[in-house]
Amino acid sequence: xxxxxxxxxxxxxxxxxxxxxxxxxxxxxxxxxxxxxxxxxxxxxxxxxxxxxxxxxxxxxxxxxxxxxxxxxxxxxxxxxxxxxxxxxxxxxxxxxxxxxxxxxxxxxxxxxxxxxxxxxxxxxxxxxxxxxxxxxxxxxxxxxxxxxxxxxxxxxxxxxxxxxxxxxxxxxxxxxxxxxxxxxxxxxxxxxxxxxxxxxxxxxxxxxxxxxxxxxxxxxxxxxxxxxxxxxxxxxxxxxxxxxxxxxxxxxxxxxxxxxxxxxxxxxx
Length: 270
Ligand SMILES: Cc1cc2nc3c(=O)[nH]c(=O)nc-3n(C[C@H](O)[C@H](O)[C@H](O)COP(=O)(O)OP(=O)(O)OC[C@H]3O[C@@H](n4cnc5c(N)ncnc54)[C@H](O)[C@@H]3O)c2cc1C
What we know:
Shape: elongated
Largest sheet: 4 strands, antiparallel
Bound molecules: flavin-adenine dinucleotide
């Protein structure tokens, strides 16, 4: 969900300012890729029950360890993967990777997200190359719904964006002697971005295997996590639960004492 930013002060004409700027009130996530399992004809598995390709890939890898493709215990894929989690055999889950396009999140959120290293790959919008005079912003969840706080926050955001635009223009003039215009723009934008707030909206592609997603979601959907990344983690959890239910079936979403959603899980850091 987005809102238009209102109340730009007409005393400051800003030629490149896009109005209205969008205010994100929640993240936007899109699945970019999911596993496509190709079963080898010489090692067929006796599959039982419903499953997605990501789940089958993990089951196939797990069964290879004991050459149990015949499925002697007659387990459904979901029962089999539940047992994998119970046994802490988490490396099997590393075969299934999911890529997600993450938009409508702040730079402070991605600063926290990219701390998750093992099993992760990231590609993020560059503030050195991209013109942030048309940037959008993400309102912190704690501010949403309080008119006075929203107004105070908007005023600061607008002022920061105006400063950014002015700085870029002045830096372009200051470095007019730099012949390469792309390089000159980069010099201007990389310096001017210093005045942009943590709330500046960014976009990032994140790819991780299921084991890595689980570890990140455990930490970031818990009550101790910062509110925006916690909200993001719950959105990601729901998305991945639809993609590979068996991999996330032990996560339970509940309403915490602070009246916000959080999640806890059955099998810690497998
Ligand atoms: C509520 C909360 C508050 C936080 N506050 C702060 C803060 O104030 N300041 C701050 O700097 N950070 C903070 N962090 C970030 C935190 O310290 C971690 O950087 C982040 O959660 C990523 O966790 P990780 O290292 O386990 O993840 P990953 O890098 O994804 O690693 C996953 C797991 O792999 C193993 N692993 C990864 N790398 C290594 C390695 N080099 N050696 C051995 N084992 C490894 C570990 O078991 C690790 O848990 C906070 C995190 C949370 C959830």
